[in-house]
Amino acid sequence: MRIVCPYCGDRDTEEFIFRGEALGRHPGLNSDEYAMFEHVYHRTNLSGKTSEHWYHVQGCRNWILVERDTLTHTIYSARLAKDGES
Amino acid sequence: MILKGIGYVDEGLQIEERQNVAFASILARKNQNGETIGELIGGSLREGPLTTILGDTVYIGTGPGSWLATSSTKATDFADNLATKLAGRASVSDQSGAYCVTRITGDRARHLLQRGVAINLHPDVFTTGCAATTVIAHIAVVIWQIDISPTYDIATFRTYSPDFRHWLAHSWRSF
Amino acid sequence: MSRRAEGGLVDRSKPLRFTFDGRDYQGFEGDTLASALIANDVKLVARSFKYHRPRGILTAGADEPNALVTLGNGAYRTPNTRATTVPLYDGLTAVSQNRWPSLAFDLLAVNQLASPLFVAGFYYKTFMRPAWFWEKVYEPIIRRAAGLGSLSIQPDPDCYDREHAFCDLLVIGGGAAGLAAALTAARAGLRVILADDDMWLGGSLLGERLEIDGRQSADWALDRTRELAGMPNVSLLTRTSVFGIYDGCEYTAFQQLSNDGAPASEGTPRQRLWKIIARRSILATGATEQPLVFGGNDRPGVMMASAVSTYVNRFAALPGRRAVVVTCSDSGWQSALDIQSAGIEVIALVDTRATEHSLASEVSRRGAKIFLGARVRDAFGKTLNRVEIELIDGSIRSLDADLLAMAGAWRPNIGLGAALGAKPVWCESLQSFRLADTPPGLVAAGAANGHYSAAAALTDGVAKAVEQANELGRSITDAPGFQTSEQLASAHQTWGTSSSRTKAFVDFQNDVTDKDVQLAAQEGFVSVEHLKRYTTLGMATDQGMTSQLNGHALLAEATGRTVGEVGTIRARPPVRPVAIGTLAGMHRGMHFRPTRRTASHELAEALGASFVDVGQWKRAQWFARLDEEDWQDAVNREVRQTRSRVGICDVSTLGKIDVHGDHAGILLDRLYINGFSQLAVGKARYGVMLREDGHVLDDGTVTRFAQDNYYITTTTANAARVMQHIDYARQVLWPELDAQAVSVTEQWSTFAIAGPQSRALLQAAFPDVDLSNMAMPFMRAMRFRWNGYEVRIFRISFSGELAFEVSVSAMVGDQLITYLFEVGEQFGVIPYGTEALGVMRIEKGHVAGNELNGQTTAADLGLGKMMSTKKDFIGRIMAQRPGLIDPSRPALVGLKPIDRTDALRSGGHLFAEGAPFSPANDQGYVTSSAYSATLGHSIALGMLAHGRERCGERVVVHNPLRGGDVLAEVCNPVFYDPEGNRLRG
């Protein structure tokens, strides 16, 4: 499988570490226990298009937000996570 | 087998381990970029996986807002000088001890390197001034192309360099 | 000898010698092992898997299920090789498999008598009782009888390498369609890779008597090969099998470079693994002729009709003298003509269809009797000698023949195209499954797309190349066209015969008969996927190329469905068998993964170190002297000498990270449980990081070198994980912070100098630096220059002695360590390794990897007070969950054996004295243990329920795996110098 890293270009997924579902906004370090619990443990685990976090460890060392279809493996987009959701 | 510190010469291929090369990592601080950082060292640093040459220093783009600076000048002062010049706009860390550099040049250089990298090195898409941070045989590498012979420099972490040499010997064997 | 005097693609001026089952034979360059055997009248080449039936060569290609031989000797022995795909080479030695004592006289053929027991699924029903028979009787017998060929068990002497390639168009298969497609695309300037598993391009064109543009098809293929080879934008890969397709337009292939069974020439790998990224691809893998199912269809002498054509046309080898041809397709008629033209008598041509054929007069003019609407019932002979056919009126005819060429319908080789979720669909007109959906970027062309005649295949190849070029934004307006001689291509497959007397085979390699398929259906295995696994049909190395279709059709019949309703199985990569060595490449033995060595490695070797693997690192474990009895003596000495004088240990393997920026301190505050934004410049502090779920992630030392510059260390094992964690925090969680981080693990060599003489040693080494207790108190750090290089000294102690850590650029790490040992000689310095390091830290109750096991919290480890109440940090909230602050949780304790001569063992579990050893009574476990030279007895650290309140109590350390339970006393985990006086001197 390959991912087009926004900085490095088309690369083998061997260069990346898959963290999991992109978790949306962090609840904040002083959030309430239930919001933090949801954030740490709960996943929507969609069948279809999902957002994921991949770390380009053997490349630019940036976290990439990838939109991928878990059924067809089509990758729709790959953006730098630090540039935000937009 | 390629020996430490010695080069190898064959038909269409020359491999040399460069000694005494200085390295420093440059990370842009908030709201800074290749242009604002470049102002302090005499020229804009190109963004993207490309090299920028200013004086005797090559700046290799290794990530958004990050470069690896390298030079054949005296290793012990390189990072400090750079840190002083870039203070406030970029964070500099000495990496002279971290890397070994191998220079590969000749007609067969591209073919040899293509055996290891899963990136297209065809001159149409990768040429002088292009760089890539990637992996060869489970070893992290930084590659940049110096001229169209083609000549490439490949930086590997010091403790992985013996295994990188082994990959070179193994891949060159079947030419 | 059965070799035609002229013709074919073999080079009669280059004879090659080979042996088969110990006998010498001769063939020519251009032969395969199979064609050379046929030319030498060798009919019997194998014994079948289950029933040990005599078998001959069935096909002329990679679809061969029978002719599996073992090539070569010694370490080069290569079993289960298809004789049909081995190019003949001088000195080739091959032996047949799965027979004893010989191929001709195989005692194990007695299996045939027991065959009613060996029907499909027999292993689910037999070998069950009595239960104890399994290990002693059944399993050994089965093991000896299982498998076909056997391995040499010696290490693989060959080497393998790897290449990457990128192209616009990958053409898989170099037959008519593949050549046409490659040409079309290449002439238009696309970058093309054409791969074919044969030694030459051309595919079935090499075995047919067909004209293309006025040239014989084989010559035309050679011309096109030359043309393609001369184009700089084309790569031709022969003897290359594309075996996998993966997401992201990635294809894998293996290329055969040497001869199997023989040593490769110097520097030549046996195989090369190709990873090809192709923007578009064309699957031109052709089609496979299907066998017909009738009694005795596995007899040596029964062959695929197209294979017979190939043997007589391409290899000029004659598989028999008197032939019967049975067909349900037009190509079978063409094969009959090929056979007759080669000088073999065709006694009869049996067409299962009832309609008159256009070639009938031609075929009968040459002496063949035509039987329409007829079928073959049985074939007889250890090697074929008689064929029984059933005519349209029901009467039976017996024919003496030594060759039976069968031509079923053609099945497109869609293997690769059915991976990645593309489901094949039944095509009524083709009587086969074909691709409807295809993987992204791939289209089928030619016979693989159901276009069986050469003309149609060529046209389709061109059309698909134009289509794919269009997809790439290139429009081709002058696509080539080719003129071929007439070729018909219709078929109507018959799926089996109900009235045979002897065994009728569906899967030849796994010995699956038509009765097995019926049995499976009877027993309820009505899905194709179940049929496959219950009967093993299609599971052999030929992957069902000549068996699946018949099997599915018989299943359809047995369950009252159409073949389309039954469907077909999914294929997965690899579609061909791939050697593990090819996948491994150079990563074998010591080079399975990189080995990392520290700067002091050579010196350590010279000093007699024994090394241990710590992840990818080699670390010195101890330095045994010649006069020492064993490792424990060495370790005890190292501990004693370090605690009484001075010792040096290489600790370069720890992770090191530079954290910069105006908000560097804030970032660290959020990562660690304790505070760092207020840490003074020039000071170091121990820090603990939690995971988001509140458990400890890692620990290390944080030093502040400037207002906006910190230097942190991690444990060796977690270096990469912590870097990832920090990057996640600053890029994903808080990108608004002005904080940068970069790994400097490789930049610094670091040595621990510990012991009462450590300051004296370092002072002597660096006389211009003030290292007194005033200038350099505990937890202080400083930087200075040594020979131009920056040196950093940290006053921190893992051992509990007066100690320092010294770092210098890894470029001169070996120089520094050598210098320190020179200077240290006057102080009696010794090197110490990871064992002594471990003993000393256990003596001081310092937690390490064993305690940071992912299940412990800071509070469990006695570090709860470090958790700041004035700031937020990752893991704070989850760490406060009731389950994680429960006082009955296992907490860190020290353990001493009551009998001081006993040894405590890591991994032992803790029980109250007298409590039965059951999970309910399990109160904890031992995490680290060592013999303490300082105290003179074994000590341990462990996690014990309510541990903090149980000092002085006795517990049992229970070792169910290794025995030797020990009674122990719970105590303070800091065994030695609990006030820390030695540290702060």
Outline the secondary-structure elements.
The complex is a heterotrimer of chains A (about 90), B (about 180) and C (about 1000).
Chain A: E1 2-5, E2 9-12, E3 17-21, H1 33-41, E4 49-55, E5 63-69, E6 75-80
Chain B: E1 8-10, E2 13-18, E3 22-28, H1 34-38, E4 51-54, E5 57-63, E6 66-71, H2 75-86, E7 90-94, E8 99-105, H3 109-114, E9 131-136, E10 139-147, E11 151-157, H4 161-173
Chain C: E1 11-20, E2 23-29, H1 33-39, E3 46-47, E4 54-55, E5 68-71, E6 78-82, E7 92-96, H2 122-125, H3 133-145, E8 160-172, H4 176-187, E9 192-195, E10 211-212, E11 215-216, H5 217-229, E12 234-237, E13 240-246, E14 250-256, E15 271-283, E16 287-289, E17 302-304, H6 305-313, E18 322-327, H7 330-341, E19 345-351, H8 360-365, E20 369-372, E21 375-380, E22 386-390, E23 396-400, E24 403-407, E25 410-412, E26 424-427, E27 432-435, E28 442-444, H9 454-471, E29 505-507, E30 512-513, H10 514-522, H11 528-535, H12 548-558, H13 563-566, H14 580-584, E31 596-597, H15 601-606, E32 609-614, E33 617-623, H16 631-644, E34 647-650, E35 655-660, H17 664-671, E36 684-690, E37 696-706, E38 709-714, H18 719-733, E39 740-743, E40 748-754, H19 758-765, E41 781-786, E42 789-794, E43 803-809, H20 813-824, E44 830-831, H21 834-843, H22 876-879, H23 882-885, E45 890-897, E46 909-912, E47 924-932, E48 937-945, E49 954-958, E50 966-971
Parallel strand pairs in C: 1-7, 8-9, 8-15, 9-12, 15-28, 17-24, 18-19, 18-24, 19-20, 31-33, 34-44
Antiparallel strand pairs in C: 1-2, 3-4, 5-6, 5-7, 10-11, 13-14, 14-15, 16-25, 21-22, 22-23, 26-27, 29-30, 32-33, 34-40, 35-38, 35-39, 36-37, 37-38, 40-43, 41-42, 42-43, 45-48, 45-50, 46-49, 47-48, 49-50
Helix pairs in contact in C: 4-5, 4-9, 6-7, 10-12, 16-21, 19-20
Kindly describe this structure.
The complex is a heterotrimer of chains A (86), B (175) and C (985). Chain A is mainly β and 86 residues long. Chain A is built from 1 helix and 6 strands; from the N terminus they run βββαβββ. Chain A is globular. Chain B folds into 2 domains: 6-19 and 99-169, Probable tRNA modification gtpase trme, domain 1 (Gyrase A, domain 2, 2-Layer Sandwich), CATH 3.30.1360.120; 22-46 and 55-94. Chain B has 4 helices and 11 strands; from the N terminus they run βββαβββαββαβββα. Chain B has helices at 34-38, 75-86, 109-114, 161-173; strands at residues 8-10, 13-18, 22-28, 51-54, 57-63, 66-71, 90-94, 99-105, 131-136, 139-147, 151-157. In chain B, the strands form 2 sheets. Chain B has a 6-stranded antiparallel beta sheet. In chain B, strands 4-5-6-3-7 form a 5-stranded antiparallel beta sheet, covered by helices on one side. Residues 1-5 of chain B have low confidence and may be disordered. With 985 residues, chain C is α+β, with helices and mostly antiparallel strands. Chain C is built from 23 helices and 50 strands. Chain C is elongated and about 115 Å long. The longest helix of chain C is centred in the middle third of the chain and has 18 residues, at 454-471. Chains in contact: A-B, A-C, B-C. The interface between B and C is large, with 43 and 51 residues.
